[in-house]
Design brief:
The protein is α/β, with parallel strands linked by helices and about 160 residues long. It has three helices and seven strands, in the order βααββββαββ. The strands form two sheets. It has a five-stranded mixed β-sheet. A two-stranded parallel ribbon has the order 1-2. α1 (about 10-35) packs antiparallel against α2 (about 45-70). The radius of gyration is 22 Å and the shape is elongated.
Amino acid sequence: MTTIPITVRGAEKLKEELHRLKTVERHAIIQAIAEARAQGDLSENAEYEAAKDKQGFIEGRILEVESKLAAAQIIDPKALNAEGRVVFGATVELEDEKTGNPVTYQIVGEDEADLKEGRISIGSPIARALIGKVAGDVAEVQAPGGVKSYEIVEVRYV
C-alpha cells in the first residue's frame, strides 16, 4: 500500500471528522430512517429514499477517511531537520519578483490544501517548483497566466 503524506494537523482533522461521522452523523441518519419507515409505504416515501442516500454517502465517507488514515504517513513539520530546504510540511515565505507582493504557503497533503488559509498541496505546480530549494533561491512556476517567479525569503518548520 502506498503511503500518503499528511501533517499532524491534517491527521487530527481527519480523526475528528471520522469521530463525528461515526458518533453523530451515523446515529442521526439511523433515526431519520426509522422516522421515515414509521410513515408507512416505503415505495413512495421520499424522506426514506433521501435518508438511505445520505446513509450511503456517510458510510462511504467513513470508509474513505479510514482508508486515508490507514495509509497516512504523518509528518510533524516541527520535527523536521531539512537544513533550510523546502520540504513537505514546511512553511515558505515568498516574494513575487514581478510585483514584490509577499505570500506565505505551507506545503501539505492533498486533503489538507486550502489556498485561503495558505496551505497548498504537495502536488500543486508551485509546491513542486519550491521543493528542495532554500532561502534566496528563485522558483519559476508555470501558471495559467504565464511563468511566475518567486524568491524564497524564508523557510520555517512550524
